[in-house]
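Sequence design from tokenized structure. All designs in this work follow the same two-part layout: the structure record, then the generated sequence. An example of the structure record is given first.
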């Protein structure tokens, strides 16, 4: 049972089912949150099989294909942001914080931990909050005659924030072979502040992480094999690619948001690092 309360966001709730049809929204879904209220079974995600249990939460990104195989009666709530939600800003959606929501989701898309699919949480309280908010959205969805768009809008904002925050926590807590926890903290800080160019100078970063100005760049490159400046530019360009692929934002808008002088400056940097112009990149998306 699915319905769109906000245009191009689908909210689906299923109670005590032992069979789920293949999701008809897979090819047009940008981002999806699935909460398993009860039940157990497996999910085949992109050919890999993982277990799900009651009170587990999964996130899916573009091109993820999953099939549910319940072993016991399963109840779920799913919130699906369709690709068109971030492209067609209609009068129905123009009052929503669409850009803020996109920023939260792109943090998840560009995180190393999103491939875990099942959400892990820094605290039990965060998970409790997320479940409560998801249930609140579902309850408003069921209230077909008088749903409250304010509750739905603000609940979705907090849900996305909680997911992004806890994926950052996972990045910090998982110490990779080539990355110290300090390095991961620096990377998380860069990701969180990528739209605040003024705090990503070498001096500001060194001050934030209690290092000498002339040492933090050396330290970063030693642990990542990439210079600090190049890492920041490459991450910005990942976000540029995501916006070009999934939104209707103009080059000038993207340039302004990410701290480039103008669209010409952005195009020059993009071509230098990617070997292709912005227009050619967009042409290849068609």
């Amino acid at each position: 049972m699915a319905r769109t309360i906000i245009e191009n966001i689908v909210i689906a709730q299923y109670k005590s089912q032992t069979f789920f049809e293949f999701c008809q929204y897979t090819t047009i879904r940008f981002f999806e949150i699935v909460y398993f209220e009860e039940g157990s079974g497996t999910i085949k995600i992109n050919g890999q099989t993982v277990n799900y249990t009651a009170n587990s939460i999964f996130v899916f990104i573009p091109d993820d294909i999953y099939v549910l195989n319940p072993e016991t009666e399963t109840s779920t709530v799913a919130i699906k942001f369709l690709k068109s939600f971030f492209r067609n800003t209609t009068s129905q959606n123009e009052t929503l914080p669409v850009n803020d929501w996109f920023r939260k989701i792109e943090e998840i898309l560009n995180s190393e931990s999103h491939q875990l699919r099942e959400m892990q949480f820094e605290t039990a309280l965060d998970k409790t909050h997320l479940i409560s908010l998801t249930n609140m959205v579902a309850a408003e969805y069921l209230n077909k005659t008088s749903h409250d768009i304010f509750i739905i809008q603000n609940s979705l904002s907090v849900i996305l924030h909680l997911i992004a925050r806890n994926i950052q926590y996972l990045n910090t807590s998982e110490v990779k072979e080539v990355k110290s926890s300090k390095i991961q903290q620096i990377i998380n800080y860069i990701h969180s502040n990528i739209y605040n160019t003024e705090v990503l100078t070498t001096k500001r970063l060194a001050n934030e992480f209690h290092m000498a100005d002339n040492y933090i760049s050396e330290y970063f490159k030693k642990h990542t094999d990439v210079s600090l400046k190049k890492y920041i530019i490459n991450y910005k360009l990942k976000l540029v690619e995501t916006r070009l692929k999934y939104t209707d934002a103009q080059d000038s808008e993207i340039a302004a948001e990410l701290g480039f002088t103008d669209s010409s400056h952005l195009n020059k940097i993009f071509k230098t690092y990617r070997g292709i112009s912005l227009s050619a990149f967009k042409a290849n998306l068609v």
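The chain is about 45% helix and 20% strand. We note this feature because it recurs in several other targets discussed in the main text.
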